[in-house]
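Before going further, learn to read the protein records used in this course. The integers have meaning only within a learned vocabulary of local backbone shapes. To see the layout at work, look at the sequence and tokens printed below.
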Amino acid sequence: MTKSCDNAVILFARDPVLGQVKTRLSPFLDKKTILELYTCFLHDSLDKIRQVENADLFVGVAPSNQSGFFSGMPGADIRLFVQEGKQLGDKMRRAIQDRFAEGYEKSVIIGSDSPSLPVTYIERALSSDKDLVLGPSTDGGYYLIGMRGKVVEVFDGVAWGTEKVLRETCAHLARNGAELELLPVWYDIDSPEDLRFFQTHLQLIEQAGIGKVGETGKFLNKILGDH
């Protein structure tokens, strides 16, 4: 895939391998069901980034494409790469650096744990004129990070996987003199409690006519019951 515009949207995803994804949902769900659920997350996330206009699309997979899931992606509109680096911050920095080196002016990374994320939030990040855009999540982290023109060094010294991620990232901004735009709050799905909330939220989104339940919503209705 050759560069076709100035914006890059990157989906960070884990390789869907049995027993290696969404482990916090065990033992609430068995490993096979968790794998099927995460595969639904991926299908919906891929469908979401394909709705973004005026952006080249990428998937950064970790630790590798062992499962072959991403080799079977329909269409040739998404470029696949393996995440490089030890910690999440290193991996995000490298992914954004590589996009800027390829000539992109804006780069946005989203995770695969927010399959209900509105496409408009991604588009808003791409239209921002700030140096850094963050989408805060309810667990204290963020569901989206975007940069314009250059890498803003906000990754070092962040306690990844804790509720301090967003706070520590914002604290680094003062040292860089970078301008920040915060998107509306959204949420990740990590725990069994998150799943029930997520199922209800998806149903309300569809009833309100502002989105679809997608593959994930259909699968949740199947395993949790349609209430």
About this structure: Residues 7-187 form a domain with the Spore Coat Polysaccharide Biosynthesis Protein SpsA; Chain A fold (CATH 3.90.550.10).
